[in-house]
Design a protein that fits this description.
The protein contains 2 helices and 5 strands, in the order αβββαββ. It has 81 residues and is an alpha+beta fold. It has one domain. The protein has a 5-stranded mixed β-sheet. The protein is globular.
Length: 81
C-alpha cells in the first residue's frame, strides 16, 4: 500500500492521514493479511490498515471494506482490499 492508498482509505472514514508508524509493532499473525501497516491520523490516533484477499470477507464476518474493529487500548483496524 502506498501512502496515497492509505490516505484514500482513511478519507472514506473522514480521517486525515498523517504518517505510517513503522516504530509501532503489530501484534498477531501477519499471515492473515496480504499487507498491513500501523498508521497515524492527523488527530494522533493509531490505526491498523490491512489488505486482504476478497475471500477473506466471506469467513471473517463483519470486516467488509471500510469497516473498522477495535479493542480498548489498541489501534483500530481498518479493512480494505
Amino acid at each position: 500500500m502506498t501512502d496515497q492508498d492509505i490516505a484514500l482509505i482513511l478519507a472514506r472514514l473522514e480521517l486525515e492521514f498523517d504518517r505510517v508508524r513503522p516504530d509501532l509493532p503489530l501484534a498477531g499473525s501477519p499471515d492473515r493479511s496480504l499487507e498491513r501497516r500501523v498508521v497515524e491520523s492527523a488527530d494522533g490516533r493509531a490505526w491498523v490498515v490491512e489488505k486482504h484477499q476478497p475471500l477473506f470477507y466471506a469467513w471473517k464476518g463483519d470486516c467488509s471494506p471500510g469497516s473498522t474493529r477495535s479493542r480498548p487500548g489498541s489501534a483500530t483496524a481498518i479493512f480494505t482490499r
